[in-house]
Amino acid sequence: MTSPGISADPRASWQALLPSTSRALDHRVALAQAQGRAPSVVAAVVRDGEIVWEGAATSVDGHGPDGDVQYRVGSITKTFTAVLVMRLRDEGLLGLGDPVEKHLPGTGLGEVTVGQLLAHTGGLAAETPGAWWERTPGSERPTLAHVLGEEPFLHPVGRRHHYSNPGYTVLGALVEKLRGAPWEDVLRREVLEPLGLTRTSAQPQPPAAGGWAVHPWADVMMPEQVEDLGLMAPAGQLWSTTRDLARFAVFLAQGDDRVLSAATVREMRAPAAPAEDGDWEGGYGLGVQLFRRGGRTLAGHSGSLPGFLACMVFSVDEGLAAIALANCTSGPQIGGLAAELVGIVADAEPRFPEPWRPMDEVDAQVLELAGPWYWGTAGFGLRVLADGIELAPLQGKGRSARFRAEDDGTWTGLGGYYAGETLRAVRRPDGTVSHLDLGSFVFTREPYDVSAPVPGGVHPEGWRGLKQLGE
Description:
Residues 362-445 form the DUF7586 domain. Helix content is 26%, strand content 22%. It is of the alpha+beta class. It has two domains: 19-348, DD-peptidase/beta-lactamase superfamily (Beta-lactamase), CATH 3.40.710.10; 364-466, Lipocalin. The longest helix is centred in the N-terminal third of the chain and has 18 residues, at 19-36.
């Protein structure tokens, strides 16, 4: 079934899914609920900023959840906390390279940085010492010392990705220290209200699903207890709905200057932690999980707490997002479900590319650079695009990158090996182009052009055939 969408958009009717696509989504959610033995599963799909499908499957006849019913979303909370930290960074109140101790003295975390906590590379333990924090009152951990324990480190700082719930508790405390207000209040004022997330809260607000434990060997279940996590709230406290998480996914894909710019959310989505050994299908940015599923790259976050499972994923390239929520401790593979919902729509109704249009105008000196160039004997092609230039190998994959024009006439690499590197066209006294300089690499119009300053020089006898080599 369709919904009014995230915002008023005259294209909303155009965006409606085909009946066959909607049926495939309905079937996949029904399968997840039945095979996962979940009391209920609710889901939504977003395309180009609008909710285009909502669905649910439930064990209660005649009464199913919709996109307004709250479920506990567990560690998706971490992404909200990360947004607050990035706001502090953008305001200049902290740097990602700052040691946490600079802002929260006495934690005992030494040189662990803010950025390392965001990316789970600080070397901290995954859980708190003592009883399992998700099933015990937050009052049992009244201070950061209780959360971190006497030995907070399990790994060398900065060497590996090791998911840490205590790390995000520290980040929440950092937000409270620099804002001078409780984490929940700061989140509501700076993120929830600006984005219109009226159904996201630290405590459940009706209508809200109850959390259940389903017996692994019998078709029976019992209610799970709901705990206030106290200091651990920034790691997993929130309740939300598919509609609110749809809005949040759109924000993470596009940015919103009232909260974070497009450039900052793009930074959050960039890999910031090494992949685990043998796991090259996923990664982690700054408060954002990264997935490779079915040949596509997805970003978002999963979450779980006793009685609940949640996942929010989105594909920036395809303009799609999916949210899936369930009210059971285990059973449905909720992360796989959300990824498959994206795949169903992407495969059945692939996105139309933007129509090609010529540039309004072009600088003749830039157009002069278009065409083939050679780094040694390796051929590259330079294309002049509406938003910069692109340099790519003529054969194979190799090192390719797009470059952004700068005011001084140079270009800055935007990705891959040349990210952040400077490309400049070096001209002769008469104004003609001698060569391209890319981070000290010299690209010439001909392989080893004798008229260009090729590092190491060019053999004076030039190119020769096999018989000429012995002469």
